[in-house]
Write a sequence for this structure.
DNA sequence: CTAACAGTGGAACGGATCGTTCCGCTCTGC
DNA sequence: GCAGAGCGGAACGATCCGTTCCACTGTTAG
């Protein structure tokens, strides 16, 4: 193998570099399945020892934080991509489909509270909120989103989809798409529908998860 | 206080009888909030010692089983009540509203797997399935339920509502009603709607929770 | 060729949690 | 007044889990 500082590395270095990916992937899979899985489960799933984990992350909290932040960035990225779509309603539905498929909700909200967030995460979360608002505004403009739906109804919607879980991941994805279809149908404007009940979900009502667990 | 074997008891006996209720209520509240809360939390919430608990139940599993069975019976009772309603669609929606309000789903599905079920529970679960099917059939007959919705879509729906959680219980109820409204709107038949995607949820797909945790 | 070392596996440790038991106390019912 | 039902809560033992530590291995610089 090449030993110089070229692109491809052989031996230990290469294995180490590959482990970076393998470990992150394993962590995603494990914590997606169970937000409070032990760290040893991640190592086992990755097929490495525990040391390989602690060499890369200061502790469990560090790993969780990174994972959550990745999820948040994914959310923002999907929103930005969706905003490029010319059709207002399609932008809205495509965004939700992508986010549900990627299980971003489990990576962000369900992991919150298990670590102290960074300031950058706060900024990203704010940006995420702005982008979501923009998507909802455009969906309203298209006339296909029922007028009494608000941004924070997305929180309910994503929670509902993330709650669908069966052992098989692919089947989970299918059932979530079905759930999403029902919810989107329910959020579509129809001539004379009863208005949605109760005070609509408000800004701070879902932040409680982000506060440090007691 | 009367000491004879009349209806009202005074002193210790009365306190003990009252504790029966208090403890069950506390257990419901605690395990509804967190399915794997420690038993001590129940005792604390009830304002009694741990002994008072173990005097009534052989162990945690016993308590959980009873709680879950109660939830199942409640589900059946609500379904039977709903079936008395003449209007087919109203029977369907009223049933769901009652079940969601009572948080029956958290009492049954979310507690499953933490104990070995009894045969009677199996029978009740089967009866619950039959009643739910009857309600869905009538809803279909009314023409207001979209034709491609199936019984087991109720599982998704209830899961979605149970997933809504905020610290305040009353607010939780409001938000769940809103979620339910969206879902019911989505399940309502409209002239030319896209069919729901994917193979519909099937019979055995939600039973995995009832299998003993590995 | 070899000494230093980055990278690793996994045993071991210490703390936390939780179900259950047990003992001593109180107050009732006879 | 006494036997005992009912109870509070400390104590115990079993897990579980995050983190540390050490011995080992293959690589790489010189």
């Amino acid at each position: 193998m090449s030993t110089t500082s070229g692109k491809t590395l052989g031996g230990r270095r290469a294995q180490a570099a590959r482990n970076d990916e393998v470990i992150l992937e394993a962590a995603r899979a494990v914590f997606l399945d169970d937000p409070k899985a032990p760290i040893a489960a991640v190592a086992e799933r990755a097929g490495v020892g525990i040391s390989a984990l602690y060499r890369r992350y200061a502790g469990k909290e560090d790993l969780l934080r990174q994972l959550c932040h990745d999820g948040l960035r994914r959310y923002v990225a999907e929103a930005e991509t969706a905003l490029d779509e010319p059709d207002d309603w399609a932008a809205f539905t495509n965004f939700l489909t992508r986010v549900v498929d990627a299980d971003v909700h489990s990576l962000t909200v369900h992991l919150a509270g298990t670590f102290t967030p960074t300031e950058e995460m706060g900024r990203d979360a704010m940006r995420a909120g702005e982008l979501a608002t923009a998507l909802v505004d455009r969906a309203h403009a298209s006339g296909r989103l029922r007028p009494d739906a608000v941004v924070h109804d997305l929180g309910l919607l994503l929670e509902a989809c993330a709650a669908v879980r069966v052992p098989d991941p692919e089947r989970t994805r299918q059932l979530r798409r079905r759930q999403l279809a029902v919810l989107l149908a329910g959020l579509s404007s129809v001539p004379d529908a009863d208005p949605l009940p109760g005070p609509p979900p408000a800004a701070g009502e879902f932040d409680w998860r982000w506060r440090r667990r007691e």
User: Anything to note?
Assistant: Chain B has two domains: 10-56, 64-210. Residues 3, 10-13, 38-40, 50-51, 54, 59-60 of chain B lie near DNA strand C (CB under 10 Å from a C1'). The radius of gyration of chain B is 20 Å. Residues 64-210 of chain B form a domain with the Tetracycline Repressor; domain 2 fold (CATH 1.10.357.10).
